């Protein structure tokens, strides 16, 4: 089988697909990946072949539309800049994927730019599968305590807005591919085709969702490579020299004031009698003054480090949230944007942690939230939650099985035009 995995986004978007790609390649399949140019090195380092696909994803996160999304007062004000952001690179991505997918048996899409992938799959007449790390399709369970009909109608409206913002780019792509004009959104066409839509997270986060959806949307748990890092030995040594630390990380999100952030974390942890392990990620912490109770490193292996921590504090990305849950330690989500607020809500609903927007955090609020999640009841519930999570190796193996079956029994998206 020749499989093409086309995924755009940050490492949190790319790693789940890469994890499955490594497993498929181990099984003897020909695997090719299309990823943002800034993540080519990451994918090649795990032994996969990759080509540049779309704009630099880290640069996108620094754009004003992403950082100011939650401050928008008039939703109509986001339409034009949103359309430009959502379709940037669409044509080039289509050309890349057409070249890469020639002779392929399956195309797998990440959660974004699915229209690009759906049209190329239709062009070649091959099955498409989608990987979602969030309840991406219309459902009645994504927001707790809100009536299901209201949730569904709101999600349909948002999908309608997305279709309006991306329709011109899709129409152009389809015209260049010689595909018939369509008045159905790519999301609708993917659903109607019977495509496999893998839910790369555990159903326990959204009670009732698995019952609402059918077998075409199986829940496999979070997909991760669990890669070792260059800091593993140093981190393990530092942890062994004292009490278990509290982990602080912000994923692919940049911290605006590293020095102030470290100072606040250090002072708050000192009041609690705790140590702090800070993962710098994409932020430069090199010039930050040293603090005795703080270790700052560029990267960490979540699977190895989190079980040795008292609690984990992070941005609320799907992968980091799942890693904290699997480790059985309490969580504090300091969310920034995208779907992070939804994961923050689930952490609180499940009573395994607390959450608030990063921009609103103060030393006082951080101290209060950490005292709360370090309480015995949160520790107990976190350990109980870990027992209900799907092990990482099972998630990867199950997903590879599903994709192999999709090739054997898959349907093809065919648009007849109107």
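-> sequence recovered:
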């Amino acid at each position: 089988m020749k499989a093409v995995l086309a995924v755009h986004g940050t490492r949190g978007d790319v790693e789940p697909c890469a994890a499955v790609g490594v497993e498929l390649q181990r099984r003897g399949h020909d695997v090719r990946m299309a990823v943002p140019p800034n993540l080519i090195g990451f994918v090649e380092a795990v032994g996969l072949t990759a080509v540049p696909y779309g704009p630099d994803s880290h640069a996108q996160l620094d754009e004003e539309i992403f950082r100011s999304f939650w401050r928008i007062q008039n939703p109509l004000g986001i339409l034009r800049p949103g359309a430009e952001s959502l379709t940037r690179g669409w044509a080039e991505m289509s050309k890349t994927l057409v070249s890469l997918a020639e002779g392929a048996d399956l195309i797998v899409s990440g959660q974004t730019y699915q229209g690009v992938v759906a049209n190329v799959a239709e062009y070649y007449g091959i099955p498409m599968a989608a990987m979602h790390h969030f309840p991406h399709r219309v459902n009645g369970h994504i927001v707790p305590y809100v009536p299901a009909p209201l949730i569904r109608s709101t999600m349909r409206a948002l999908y309608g807005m997305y279709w309006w913002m991306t329709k011109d780019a899709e129409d152009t792509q389809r015209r260049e591919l010689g595909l018939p004009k369509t008045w159905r959104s790519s999301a609708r066409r993917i659903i109607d085709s019977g495509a496999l839509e893998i839910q790369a997270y555990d159903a326990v986060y959204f009670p009732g969702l698995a019952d609402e959806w059918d077998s075409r949307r199986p829940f496999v748990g979070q997909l991760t490579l669990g890669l070792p890092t260059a800091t593993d030995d140093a981190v393990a040594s530092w942890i062994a020299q004292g009490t278990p630390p509290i982990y602080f990380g912000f994923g692919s999100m940049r911290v605006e004031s590293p020095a102030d952030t470290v100072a606040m974390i250090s002072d708050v942890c000192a009041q609690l009698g705790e140590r702090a392990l800070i993962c710098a990620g994409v932020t430069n912490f090199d010039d930050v003054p040293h603090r005795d109770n703080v270790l700052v490193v560029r990267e960490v292996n979540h699977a190895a480090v989190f079980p040795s921590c008292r609690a984990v504090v992070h941005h609320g990305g799907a992968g980091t949230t799942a890693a904290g849950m699997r480790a059985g330690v309490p969580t504090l989500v300091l969310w920034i944007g995208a779907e992070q607020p939804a994961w923050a809500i689930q952490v609180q609903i499940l009573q395994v942690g607390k959450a608030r927007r990063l921009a609103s955090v103060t030393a006082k609020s951080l101290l209060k939230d950490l005292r709360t999640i370090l309480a015995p009841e949160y520790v107990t519930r976190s350990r109980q939650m870990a027992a209900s999570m799907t092990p990482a190796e099972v998630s990867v193996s199950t997903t590879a099985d599903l994709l192999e079956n999709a090739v054997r029994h898959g349907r093809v998206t065919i648009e007849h035009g109107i």
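Confidence is low (pLDDT under 50) at residues 412-418.
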